[in-house]
Amino acid sequence: MQKADGMNYAPKGKAKPVVKSGEFIFSAVRLDHGHIFGMCNGLTEAGGTLKYVWDPDPKKVEAFLKAFPQAKAARSEAEALADKETHLIAGAAVTSERCALGLKAMEAGKDYFTDKAPLTTLEQLESAKAMVAKTGRKYMVYYSERLHVEGAVLAGYMVDEGLIGKVVQVMGVGPHRVSLSARPDWFFVKKQYGGILCDIGSHQIEQYLHFAGEEDATVVSSRIANYHNAAHPGLDDFGDCTITGKNGTTNYFRVDWFTPDGLRTWGDGRTLILGTEGFIEIRKYINLAAPGDGGNHVFLVNGEGEKYVDATGVTGYPFFGELILDCLNRTEHAMTQAHAFKAAELCVRAQMQATDLTPLVPGRE
């Protein structure tokens, strides 16, 4: 797994097939973000059969085929989308282009699985909702910081078991290493990547809705800034947000691109879940200055005492198998469509409403 930057975060777990070879076929279309590797790892480990890969950049296709030699390079995007055997299209296009790809995939009769953020505007959201209603296909999202982190999966089970009572607040921090020299041009264009709250903030909002059991929420306040990257004025390197759920729960999160080079991994992502009878902390990727190099540290405190669990190898990544079965059976166990769209809506609204603090920074008036 790549530990230097989150762009190439692609966990590998134990194979737990839920279908036989050839029973669920998917293809990878558009390889603009490295998360496509994690998405395809998860689907193949759950028994999915990877058939085609396509991207306009042959170098990206070549690198993909080294990781997934079982795939075949499609001659065009249209060939992959039109294939009658393919159940699902997995894509990691430029963020602003993810919805357009999804519309084409669903129109072609395929379910769609996209990297986060799944879209960048409310207009795109409405078009995606309309296409889902028209075709009955799925528009699912790779919110990897919950779905592909065993510590987060375990924490979800703990919440479901009532080990901390009723959740009343979720707080999260999602720092990332910026790795400027490795980033594509679109990473610095806000219209294309959506802004920091739409982009990496989407992880935080999605996990809040999940852990708090909220189906709807309101963005109360949000802020963005470019504190340290004046050469890239389109880049938000800081953002934070406060949200109130329909059922009265609250959420605060901070995201940034300030992970120092001295950290062993790309970001010290943490989540704190407060309940009426206890709390859970997830240290997702590292335990600072501690021996070893792993993440998935889960701390539980409730009326019975304190407990620590290293969740590595404990839960696996059930989302992918559930998604495959949902596609085949037309069910909604992995994630509901309403949940995927609500998280997308809130991250767009948080970005739209954000106060830009950059003009207050000395020398940046």
Q: Key features?
A:
single chain; alpha/beta; Rossmann fold; 2 domains; 11 helices; 15 strands; globular
Question: What does this molecule look like?
Answer:
By secondary structure, this protein is an alpha/beta fold. The protein folds into two domains: 6-145 and 318-335, Rossmann fold (3-Layer(aba) Sandwich), CATH 3.40.50.720; 146-315 and 349-355, 2-Layer Sandwich (Dihydrodipicolinate Reductase, domain 2). The protein has eleven helices and 15 strands. The strands form two sheets. Strands 14-13-12-11-7-10-9-8-15 form a nine-stranded mixed beta sheet, with helices on one face. Strands 3-2-1-4-5-6 form a six-stranded parallel beta sheet, with helices on both faces. Helix 2 links the parallel strand 2 and strand 3. Helix 4 runs parallel beside helix 5 and helix 9 (201-212) packs across helix 11.
